[in-house]
Design brief:
Layout: H1 2-24, E1 41-43, E2 47-51, H2 63-69, E3 73-75, E4 81-83, E5 86-92, E6 95-96, H3 101-108, E7 116-122, E8 134-140, E9 147-158, E10 162-174, E11 177-200, E12 205-229, E13 234-259, E14 262-290, E15 295-318, E16 323-347, E17 352-375, E18 378-403, E19 407-424, E20 427-448, E21 451-462, E22 474-475, E23 481-482, E24 491-502, E25 506-528, E26 531-558, E27 563-575, H4 577-582, E28 591-603, E29 611-620, E30 627-629, E31 633-644, E32 649-656, E33 663-669, E34 673-680, E35 685-695, H5 706-709
Parallel strand pairs: 5-8, 23-26
Antiparallel strand pairs: 1-2, 2-7, 3-4, 4-5, 5-6, 7-8, 9-10, 9-35, 10-11, 11-12, 11-34, 12-13, 13-14, 14-15, 15-16, 16-17, 17-18, 18-19, 19-20, 20-21, 21-24, 22-23, 24-25, 25-26, 26-27, 27-28, 28-29, 29-31, 30-33, 31-32, 32-35, 33-34
């Protein structure tokens, strides 16, 4: 609390000083107005681009926050990023991120939003990208300022608990050498409230579970990019990224079990977990760019490493508060990734472009687990050693051509071959090799400069994550047990999209997605030591699923480009009838439809006083697989930023979901029963941010072309 009050005092004093400084020099320097040259949201044939550079929504936010605000993007209850309700692969500067789920969330929270240039939501990616469906590409700014430039920022936020975040950004450019550095540290406490009602068909039993989880994290990180221009056409560089997680989680849960509405028994459980993780990513790159002939060669070599070591203690008590069971769980995960990637682009024929490339990728993932259970003073130890090794190699080719300046086309083909082995306690439990062809197509026709129509097609393949193969059973804080499934199969799908553009401001889209095989959460019950336990695991589901999606969006600049408004509306319809029938999912809805919408509003230089206002609102309903949302999710964010151009200081106040605390309520259907889950997230309150910029603000004329400046995904 003292830290919070001290920070507020410091912020107030700085604010007053900066305001005085600006008043004294107001006659010498005119007020700065930030006006974006590009629309905030651009809709292209294969992607939606969220141009956030110089936007007022950046103040006080992290990259994770901006991703949540991006049109078409949603976050599920496991912190998985989705686009139009479907899973995605996240890229950073066109490099596939090694992080997923909660790891990705924690890493993106360490990148200040001020470093962002744009976020691309690529719903119809070219063959350049790997086979996992839609892509979100986070593009960071490229600095070309002569000399040293940087910023330091502090954020204090108040959710259920108080949180602090600080970062340092340094950018140095001199002649042919550029160095960027970002370091950050966060000290956060997040509280999540969960409740569940699980109904089992066989014996008409019901279990009700309520839990409260508190997570405390102290996370330092840094990223560094070094780049040397050997000549006008040759660049080499090195990217380093490091994140350290030092977290503690505590939870208390209460469980009541009923049969035919009669109380059978009650339990409570306390959980204490400690985890230390280290994640290091390296990428050595070489780039050849002949701007006259528009030829690009991009070579990347990388080594990524992450480790996670943790312990978790479970104390289970009966209705009389007597200890009935103790569990101690340990893990020491080691994951290594090695890759080499080559991409080459060259003109081919009049109005044509040819792109070819490939990637060799090797993964070695080791998950050792020690699990000790003490029941009635009788210990039972279980040791597991899980190892997953994988070779994933790919080749691709894209050909693009424009005909008579109106018809744009792109055809691509990607081939991926995977060879993987799974070992459990030294014994090989599965080995498989297979290849997959992944075609894609894009056609765009401009009837006039103001009207255009795009058609896209993609065949995708989503493979299970390596940890989903690990069938070692571990307890959860909510009373459930979790294990993987060594027999999982990948999920293929086909996607067809149409997009109609009007005056480059209004866009109407339609999409059809089809699959006949998928893997989602399933459940089973087993009896151990006289107690019935519920186990959650991924499983294969056969059955046709058809999804239809319609959307409309617009981006408007009003009031002399000071007010920017982006609005998108969507309607989705899913036919699960065949899927539910084949898998005997009782009570599941055969037909689902829901409405979604989001808007970003920003006003720049209010009253000509260097005050920026912004607001973001979103409503959606997340349905996926055999899980159905029971309510719409509503998120909102309001912020005001004051800029002091002379002192190079920014201060901002942000209000986060102040009218309604975010929550999610879903029901998952399985052959044995239905499982309803409600979560309340700790993403509400307010934050104060202070940013101080320093260094040389003179910008050297950039020798790079716009193609390089705005790179971040194939066109």
């Amino acid at each position: 609390m003292r830290l919070s009050l001290s920070f507020l005092g410091f912020l107030s004093a700085t604010f007053a000083f900066a305001q005085t400084t600006d008043s004294l020099k107001s006659k010498e320097i005119e007020a700065v107005s930030i006006i974006a040259k590009k629309p905030t949201v651009e809709s292209k044939a294969d992607r939606t681009v969220f141009n956030v550079a110089n936007s007022s929504i950046l103040a006080g936010n992290t990259t994770w926050d901006i991703v949540r605000m991006t049109p078409l993007v949603s976050i599920d209850n496991n912190d998985n990023v989705k686009a139009e309700g479907e899973s995605v692969t996240v890229y950073i500067n066109d490099r596939k991120s090694v992080f997923t789920g909660k790891e990705l969330k924690e890493y993106l929270k360490t990148i200040p939003a001020d470093n962002l240039m744009k976020i691309e939501v690529i719903t119809s990616p070219s063959s350049r990208y790997e086979a996992s469906g839609a892509v979100i590409n986070i593009v960071l700014k490229k600095r070309d300022d002569e000399g040293l430039k940087g910023s330091i920022s502090f954020t204090n936020s108040q959710n259920t608990k108080n949180n602090q975040y600080g970062s340092l950004n340094l950018n140095y450019h001199k002649k042919n050498f550029t160095q960027t550095f970002t370091g950050s540290y966060s000290d956060n406490v997040f509280i999540t409230e969960n409740s569940g009602r699980n109904t089992f068909y066989a014996d008409n039993s019901v279990s009700e579970i309520d839990s409260k989880n508190t997570y405390t994290g102290k996370n330092p990180s840094f990223s560094s990019t070094s780049e040397i221009e050997l000549s006008d056409k040759n660049n080499i560089g090195l990217v380093l990224e490091y994140f350290r997680g030092n977290g503690t989680s505590q939870s208390a849960s209460f469980e009541n079990n009923y049969r035919n509405d009669a109380l059978l028994n009650s339990f409570s459980q306390d959980v204490l977990g400690r985890t230390i993780s280290n994640k290091l990513g390296t990428n050595l790159f070489y780039k050849y760019y002949d701007k006259e002939k528009n030829r690009i060669l991009d070579v990347n070599l990388g080594v990524n490493y992450d480790s996670e070591k943790g312990t978790t203690d479970f104390t289970r008590m009966n209705a009389n508060n007597a200890v009935s069971e103790l569990r101690h769980f340990e893990n020491d995960n080691q994951n290594r990734n090695y890759f080499v990637k080559v991409d080459y682009t060259s003109p081919l024929g009049k109005g044509g472009s040819f792109e070819v490339g490939g990637k060799a990728n090797f993964n070695n993932n080791v998950i050792p687990n020690d699990y000790l259970v003490i029941t009635d003073n009788i210990p039972l130890a279980n040791v597991n050693q899980f190892q997953y090794t994988e070779n994933l190699n790919s080749l691709y080719a894209n050909y693009s051509k424009t005909f008579f300046e109106k018809l744009e086309t792109r055809i691509g083909l990607r081939y991926e071959f995977i060879d993987y082995k799974i070992h459990q306690n030294g014994t090989e439990t599965r080995r498989e090799s297979y290849g997959t062809f992944l075609p894609n197509l894009l056609v765009k026709y401009a009837f006039t400069p103001n009207y255009d129509l795009s058609l896209t097609y993609n065949h995708n393949l989503w493979r299970p994550w390596y940890s989903e193969f690990n069938d070692f059973e571990i307890p959860g804080s909510n009373g459930f047990f979790y294990r993987g499934n060594v027999n999982l199969l990948p999920n293929p799908s086909d996607r067809i999209g149409l997009k109609f553009g009007i005056y480059k401001k209004y866009f109407l889209s339609a999409r059809y997605t089809f699959t006949d095989q998928d893997y989602w959460t399933s459940y089973t019950q087993e009896t151990q030591n006289g107690l019935v336990k519920t186990i959650s695991f991924p499983d294969n589901f056969k059955g046709k699923v058809e999804k239809f999606y319609l959307s409309a969006s617009t981006n408007q600049n009003l009031i002399k480009n000071k007010l920017n408004v982006n609005l998108s509306l969507g309607w989705a319809y899913t036919d699960n009838s065949d899927f539910n029938t084949r898998n005997r999912l009782e009570g599941a809805n055969n037909y689902l439809n829901f409405f979604s919408g989001s808007t970003n509003l920003s006003y720049t230089n209010l009253f000509n006083k260097n005050i920026n206002l912004s607001a973001w609102m979103s409503v959606d309903n997340q349905n996926y697989g055999n899980s159905v949302a029971n309510q719409y999710n509503f998120f909102h964010n309001i912020s005001v930023t004051k800029i002091f151009p002379v002192a190079q200081i920014e201060t901002s106040l942000q209000l986060i979901n102040i009218f309604k605390r975010p929550s999610m309520n879903t029901t998952t259907f399985s052959q044995i029963g239905s499982f309803q889950s409600t979560q309340k997230w700790d993403w509400y309150g307010f934050s104060l941010t202070f940013v101080k910029r320093f260094g040389n603000q003179k910008v050297k004329e950039n020798t790079k072309t716009d193609v390089e400046k705005n790179s971040g995904g194939s066109k």
